[in-house]
Write a structure and sequence with these properties.
The chain is mainly α. The protein is built from five helices and four strands, in the order ββαααβααβ.
Length: 200
């Protein structure tokens, strides 16, 4: 259980921070970059939760609840990435993202996508405020995924691949939900290639 009594400690004033296992690394390390990007994605999802609640419909309140579940998962992802895997680690010794969490995302994707028309062009981020917030969360999650890939490449034996897979699937879910928020795709703003090139 987390117990915070002080907000600032001055520990990081020299550009270093402590990982979940107590080791100290530079704030520019790939591991810190990965879980920091996950934190940003969580904040972006939080904004989408607020927009979903503001919609005021039961369907969007249900989506807000799903997104709150995602926020819980993202804290798990951050905690996982914050703590390197060690060779002698026993199952359950540390909080690690499980495949079942990604399975839950896939079930949500399938359920929400079932009512959407097939796309014939790429979608511009926008439409409703909720859709725009979900696109922002999607792109932030994609960046967190890229940071996690960099970490995986740098420390493959010390990083849980299930955390990376979760982030990959999350961006898919956020894209589908953005279409749901745009009247199930009817309000999607579609890309028109070269529309502003003119004839010159």
């Amino acid at each position: 259980m987390v117990h915070l009594t002080r907000i600032y400690t001055r520990f990081g004033d020299q550009g270093e921070c402590m990982l979940g296992d107590g080791s100290t690394v530079s704030k520019t390390s790939a591991r810190v970059g990965a879980y920091g990007a996950v934190d940003e994605a969580n904040a972006a999802v939080g904004l989408a939760v607020c927009e979903a609640e503001a919609f005021g419909t039961p369907a969007m309140h249900a989506i807000a609840e799903e997104l709150r579940g995602v926020q819980q998962d993202l804290f798990d992802v951050g905690a996982d990435l914050c703590t390197p895997i060690v060779p002698q680690e026993k199952p359950g010794q540390r909080l690690r993202v499980a495949a079942s969490q990604t399975d839950r995302l896939e079930a949500m994707i399938d359920r929400h996508n079932a009512g959407l028309a097939a796309l014939r062009s790429f979608v511009l981020p926008g439409g409703t405020r909720l859709a725009a917030a979900l696109h922002l969360a999607r792109t932030t999650a994609r960046r967190a995924e890229r940071e996690a890939v960099m970490l995986m490449n740098a420390e493959p034996d010390a990083t849980n691949r299930a955390a990376l897979i979760y982030l990959n699937r999350l961006s898919d879910l956020l894209f589908v939900l953005s279409r749901v928020a745009n009247d199930h795709g009817k309000g999607d703003v579609l890309w028109t290639p070269g529309v502003n090139r003119g004839t010159a």
